[in-house]
Design brief:
two-stranded antiparallel ribbon, about 15% strand, binds iron/sulfur cluster, iron, about 90 residues, iron-sulfur, Ferredoxin, globular, 1 helix, metal ion binding
Length: about 90
């Protein structure tokens, strides 16, 4: 699993520099073509070993924007008990 930025992202840039694995790119670099920021599932570690919660989701001002994700290609261990599509942090 990884985390995913959803289409309520307001492109505010608060998350990008918080990521310890440089897994976030801005809307101009989003490989899906959507006008929102993007998390690379192949390098996102869910911040395991770096933070108690995903640093991007803690920094994000948009409630529920960053969710747990089960995209193919996620190559890192996952936090227990998380459900794809659910917000990573409670506001
Ligand atoms: S959960 Fe952590 S590693 Fe994954 S994108 Fe967010 S800040 Fe980066
Ligand atoms: S902090 Fe949240 S709203 Fe801002 S760019 Fe990142 S995902 Fe989008």
């Amino acid at each position: 699993m990884a985390v995913k930025i959803t289409d309520i992202c307001i492109n505010c840039d608060a998350c990008l520099d918080e990521c310890p694995t440089e897994s976030i790119v801005d809307n101009d670099e989003n490989p899906t073509g959507e006008d929102i920021y993007y998390v690379n599932p192949e390098t996102c570690t869910e911040c395991i070993g770096d933070n108690d919660e995903p640093a991007c989701a803690e920094a994000c001002p948009t409630e529920g924007c960053i969710v747990w994700d089960a995209r193919e290609g996620a190559s890192h261990p996952t936090r227990d008990g998380m459900i794809a599509g659910e917000p990573c942090v409670e506001d």
